[in-house]
Amino acid sequence: MAQAIRIKGGRIYDPLNGLDGVVKDLCVEDGKIVEECQETAEVIDAENLVVFPGGVDVHTHIASPAVNAARALRPEDHRLLCCPRKPGMRSGVGHTIPSTFTTGYLYSRLGYTTVIEAATPPIGTRHTHEELNDVPMVDKGCLLLMGNNEFILQYLKLGELDKIKRYVAWLLNSLKGFGIKLVNPGGVEQWKYGKDVEGLDEKVNHFDVTPRQILQALTWVNEELGLPHSIHIHANRLGVPGNYEVTLETMRALEGKRVHMAHVQFNSYGGDDYLNMTSKAKEMTDYINQHRNVTVDVGQVIFGDATTITADGPWQYRLHKLTGNKWYNYDVEVETGAGVVPYTYREKNNVNALQWAIGLETFLLIKDPWRVFLSTDHPNGGPFLYYPWVIKLLMDAEFRTQMLKRVHKHVLTRTLLPKLSREYSLYEMAIITRAGPARALGLRNKGHLGPGADADIAIYADNTDKEEMFDRAVYVLKDGKIVVRDGEVVQSVPGRTIFTDVPADDDIMNELREQFENYYTVEIGNFPIPLEELPFHQAVPTNRSA
Amino acid sequence: MTAQPMEEIVLTFKGTRGSTIPLEADPITPDVLQLKFRPEIERLPLYHGNEQVLLGDFFTVKGERSNQIRVQGDLSLVKNIGAGMQAGRIVVEGNIGMHVGARMSGGEIEIHGNADDWAGAEMTGGLLWIKGNAGNRAGSAYRGSKYGMRGGVILIEGSGGHEVGGYMRRGLIVVRGDVEDHTGARMVAGSIFVLGRLGARTGGGMKRGSIVCFHTPDMLPTFRLTSTYTPLFIPIFLRSLQARGFSVSEVQRARHFTRYCGDMAELGKGEILVCQG
Questions:
Q1: What is residue B1's predicted lDDT score, i.e. its pLDDT?
Q2: Which residues contact A233 (CB under 8 A, 6 or more apart)?
Q3: What pLDDT does residue A1 have?
Q4: Which of A143, A173, A544, B55 could form a disulfide linkage to A226, CB 3.0–4.6 angstroms apart?
Q5: CA–CA separation, A229 vs A116, rounded Å?
Q6: What's residue A3's pLDDT?
Q7: Touching check for A76 and chain B: CB below 8 Å?
Q8: What's residue A2's pLDDT?
Q9: Chain B contacts of A82, Cβ < 8 Å?
């Protein structure tokens, strides 16, 4: 039983309820936000402090077989950040890929309370949930990789859309997934034959289906099932100069449908090679500004160490060849692939500096903050620990000007960044890090501070240096419990695993039985994950049942 | 306060009281100690296994606020001395444990005894002078890192272990005695001089950089013989070492070298020079 708390006199930024810096008291009882405070409520003096809803990260990689493979591949990363054991808290290590418990503590210190693991292969999802169970302090969910699933490709080849729908429902239901993720649709299947797809209408080996068909089919399924989150897309040809065309084509193919384009920065490049690469953020954001069905997260690049982890196997091979860095390739049976390559982004590198600038252009050129979300595609663009640095770049044009003097000079001529003087306000910051992602994910109790919302609250000390301000929260409340005080975790709470409550029929399971026996390394009976394996969980209804 | 001539800090090791658990002595660097008075130095936290202890429990301290440190005693079980140091000078009188001078970026460490593994691993600058023998992986990369030593100088008067200068990126290593296997393995740049004998697979996987040998090593088949010539820089370099007090008397007449380039299984821009007299 959580106690009652009154947060007194704080400046509240709650965009979903239209509060822009309004000074008022906030009442918490039994883990929820309520209208009236109890007399006996514990008082948090928030005078001169800024009150935000708890942060919501729409796209991050913190738990999955691939993330764990990255931990194993990078012992050198473990030395850079060490968190010793404290009473009630576990020890842990890792800078770009922290171990599970440490991930939870580090997110919490920043004021984040909900995070979405954006890619888990279905067969690896038991592992993902076991890791998520060990990520404390935050609520978490995972998106299942489906864009290269051979069952789906086979059904698509046969034109059996309804079976895809039933299969997807069964996957989400049995694996406790939150939503549908597509990574390089078609391309990862091609990678199994050493190839990739170049465009949306290229046929995928053996199945004779195109990325366009996969995208459209899974978008249709997503809407038919009424999943709370839209379809979540990592588009084809990520990271390759000239890829903005295929990205625009992807969005055009799904015109009018809800769609989330992940780490769009990595998909906004012009030019034909890395030497003459240019920014196409203008073309991309023009399209996004005109089409209200699209939401994006940016995948901002941070200068320094990163670990690229993605299901996009062919891209990881390219990156390994480009950098000479060590490479881990992972072929996930009939489902997908994955790769891990360590990477370091450098200010003076032409490509890295452009990537950095394109990310910021995307933030600054998208007019509607409700449709662009803060992410570094952790840890692909850089660790989430650097979110405060990104916030400072967005809120402080002067700081951007200083950075422009340090980065590679191509940024000045090949991007619009030097001309952009927009500065995000605290209200807009609350949108892109809280209210917006929560709305796009369809989480009605997250990202706002209205009565009935989960009492996930982050309180910061206002500071002209926004990096310092957001680096450590003064208080963080998770489900009405004070978990962070003065920037340090004071109490470890487990956090819940969020999944979508999709009804599934058993018939499809019987149909799959024979194929499972032929093509999978596990029995179909061992594939579903029973609810008992998620000690703390919360089912989110679909839009159909709501 | 008038500026006093800086006196050195003398740390005398009292021993680990029969324990075989190593002592992690990260704070023993000039950068930390030069800001501290004696009582503060004695209270610096060290780790003995998983137990936090105080520096004063294991060392007697003389002197304060100095960037000149002298450490005395058999320190074979004391790790990380001078790790990450940026300036100043440490003199070690006795043997020393692992990671001495690892990641150091400046200053000097002089060891009158043997050093254990990882001496000067991933260092970026400064001078590490080991009067005795060094352990394995001196000046090399830690497991997983892309690059080892990135600058600075390591001088070893005794012998070296395995993988001296592994993954080396820049800098200089000179070993007067013998070394074991994998010298300069996967090095990307930098120079390694070995006056004694070498173990197997010298320069395996090297992309660039130079390994200068005064005894003929077992060459890998992926190295290609290019020429025998008389590089002028080697006598000049050897004279400068001699002038600094690092004895190279047994090879000072070396003039003619056979050059092998490789490793052809990698980029092949590295070279191994083998002295022919």
A1: 45
A2: A147, A181, A182, A185, A215, A250, A259, A260, A261, A262
A3: 47
A4: A544
A5: 11
A6: 78
A7: yes
A8: 56
A9: none
| Interface contact B144-A76, CB threshold 8 A | yes
In the block, residue with structure tokens 């292969």 = A121
Q: What are phi and psi of B215, to 5 degrees?
A: -125, 145
Flag if B142 and A74 touch (Cβ within 8 Å).
no
Contacting residues of B for A342, CB less than 8 Å apart: 146
Over residues A489-502, mean pLDDT: 95
C-alpha radius of gyration, chain A, whole number: 22
- The answer to whether residues A375 and A362 touch, using CB atoms and an 8 Å cutoff, is no
User: What's A434's DSSP letter?
Assistant: I
Distances (CA, A) of A278 to A267, A282, A354, A464, B39: 12, 11, 7, 33, 59
pLDDT-based confidence at residue A74 (cuts at 50, 70, 90): very high
Please give the helix or strand (H or E) that residue A541 lies within, else none.
Answer: strand A537-541
Surface-to-core class of residue B158, CB atoms within 10 Å of its CB (0-12 exposed, 13-18 middle, 19+ buried): middle
* Residues A172 and A144 sit within 8 Å (Cβ to Cβ): yes
Determine contact: B146 vs chain A, CB below 8 A: yes
Cβ of residue B246 closer than 8 Å to a chain A Cβ: no
Tokens of B44: 């610096």
- The pLDDT, as a whole number, for residue A37 is 85
| pLDDT exceeds 80 at position B5 | no
Pairwise CB contact (< 8 Å): A75 & B143: yes
Q: What pLDDT, on a 0 to 100 scale, did the predictor assign at position B4?
A: 54
* Type of residue found at A268: S
Enclosing H/E stretch for B186: none
Interchain pair B145, A325: CB under 8 A: no
Question: Of the candidates B149, B191, B193, B188, which has an alpha carbon nearest to the alpha carbon of residue B268?
Answer: B188
Which residues are CB-contacts of B51 (< 8 A; sequence separation ≥ 6)?
none
Q: What distance in Å separates the CA atoms of residue A54 and residue A56, rounded to the nearest whole number?
A: 7
Average pLDDT of the segment spanning A288-305: 95
Q: Record the tokens describing residue A443, joined without a space.
A: 């989480």
Q: Where are the beta strands (DSSP E) in A80-207?
A: 82-83, 92-93, 112-120, 139-145, 179-183
CB contact under 8 A, B145 and A73: no
A94 in B contact zone (CB under 8 Å): no
Q: Would you list the domain boundaries of chain B?
A: 1-93, 117-277
pLDDT tens-place string over residues A121-134: 999 999 999 999 99
CA B89 – CA B29 distance, rounded (Å): 8
Is B144–A77 a contact, with Cβ atoms under 8 angstroms apart? yes
CB distance A498 to A178 below 8 Å? yes
Answer for the pair B190, B169: CB distance below 8 angstroms, yes or no: yes
ipTM of the assembly? 0.83
Minimal-distance CA residue of chain A relative to B122: A76
Q: What's the gap in Å between the CA of A450 and the closest CA on chain B?
A: 47
Contacts of A72 (CB under 8 A, 6+ apart): none
Nearest to A285 by CA among A387, A192, A415, A410: A415
Any idea what DSSP says for residue A494?
-
Nearest C-alpha in A relative to B188:
A324
Question: Pick from B142, B143, B146: which is nearest to A325 by CB?
Answer: B146
Quick: pLDDT tens for B196-247: 999 999 999 999 999 999 999 999 999 999 999 999 999 999 999 999 999 9
Handedness of CA A385, A386, A389, A394 (dihedral sign): negative
**Tokens of residue A66, six digits:** 């691939």
Topology classification of domain A1-137+425-496 = Urease, subunit C; domain 1 (2.30.40)
The SS3 assignment for B115 reads strand
